[in-house]
Design goal:
The chain is mainly alpha-helical and about 100 residues long. The protein is built from four helices and two strands, in the order αααββα. The protein has a two-stranded antiparallel sheet with strand order 1-2.
């Protein structure tokens, strides 16, 4: 059963300039930066997020992994992915996203 999560992600599956996983990571970061996702907000699991977005689960896993690497998200046993304090992570996440963009090209 899908929960009614208090946020919505905008992705463009026809946009071939940016991979879907990066679009998802960018949207999650945008929500963190603008306050749409507060610290300790629990995100949907990868299966549920994939179903909401109409994408493959591995795409969501890759987006979550990208955000985990830089500390925007924290993986908590029995809770799932939660948002980490945004003020400490934004510069590092932007650097990681830039490296991922360069790697994809």
């Amino acid at each position: 059963m899908l929960r009614n999560w208090p946020f919505h992600l905008e992705i463009d599956s026809d946009n071939h300039q940016a991979p879907l996983y990066r679009q998802i990571a960018d949207e999650i970061m945008r929500l963190i930066e603008t306050g749409g996702l507060k610290d300790n907000t629990v995100l949907p699991g990868s299966r549920e997020m994939a179903a909401r977005l109409g994408v493959n689960r591995k795409t969501v896993v890759r987006a979550y992994d990208l955000l985990l690497k830089q500390g925007a998200l924290t993986s908590n046993e029995r809770v799932g992915m939660t948002v980490t304090a945004a003020d400490n992570t934004v510069p590092a996440i932007n650097e990681t996203i830039e490296r991922e963009k360069n790697k994809d090209n």
